[in-house]
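re the bet — no i am not wrong, look at it urself. input seq straight from the record:
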Amino acid sequence: MNLRVVLWVCGLGLLLGGCASSAPVQPQPEAKLQNAESGNANMVTGSSKPRLHPQAPPGPNMPELTADEREFVREVAQRHQLPQAQIAAVIAEARLNPTVLRYMAPPPPAADAPRRVRHWPGYRKRFVEPVRIKAGTEFWQEHADILAEAEREYGVPAAVIVAILGVETVYGRVTGNFNVLDALYTLAFHWPEHARRDRSPYFRGELETYVVDSLQYGKQPRAATGSFAGAVGMPQFMPSSIRDYAVSTTPGAPPDLHHNVKDVVFSVANYLVEHGWQPGLPVFVEATLPDQPERWADGKLEPSMQWSTLAAAGAQLRHPPMAGLVSAPFSEATLASRDPAVGVIDLEYANGPVEYRIATPNFYAITQYNRSYFYATAVADLAQAIESRY
């Protein structure tokens, strides 16, 4: 591995990881930029600390747990008809990892610290770059039959699936070294008080799914590694997304998102379809916007109008439109007859201008993978670059 690749991979480890979640967390006010440092903070695991002293004595056949943990054990056992002792034994194995907390909820900046400014071109450059384009092209060539089958079955272009895998883990090269049980436990029971909002209920749900899945399939709970948020495998699925959207292409076996490429590809396609992907639509419509485009950009994570509304206000297709899956060559007649739902997204250029694009439901399906305009646009642009090279 040459120095350039070493520096690139190490830099990747400092970014905040995106992941597919089946129980979307309510976005922050700047939802379109949430997790905008997408990539994977997976390279540094930190150290797990010993468990805290219990706040309540253990009961019969129960290990030492806090009162909060014991209540969690009782509720999970009741919901899934599992022995409390088995669930308690798994929770007792979990360890607090302070590095997970630092990545998920960094300490608030000092009062005199300069305000961090978002910059779309800088973000784009991290993902639409030669390493991912080359690796994505090679991945497509190697697994062309699987990608073509998934495209036929789900209607999701192969390039989009390939691009998501490239942004998430560089095709399995960086899947994470955090212990998944420790990560989920830390975020479920030790959420930092300084965080702007309490997401521990969400992570308790993910921990529950992970524990139950481990017990039901006979897995070793401490065996899995993943991102600091508990996402695993080549596509970085959270436990509930594995439960709800992952696809097994081997009868009788659970989905394998680490080694079975067909499971990985079909799972990503299925996730997008279940979150609103519409076959035959581009990700963006190549068109000029009406005057004062900022009036149409509402920052939502779903389309807010029909194409006909924008057209009536003055939006017009560019001629000739750029070919490809990102800006597909739609005719005026096709758009008028189909009249898809659209939204106007804005991509900030730090203290400079703002780039506006007209997004279709397929763009918003990608934002359900990671609730960020930057993320979804980077996936679309990387897909376009890989498709052109392929």
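see?? The CA atoms of residues 91 and 137 lie 42 Å apart. told u. also The first strand starts at residue 178 and ends at 179. so pay up
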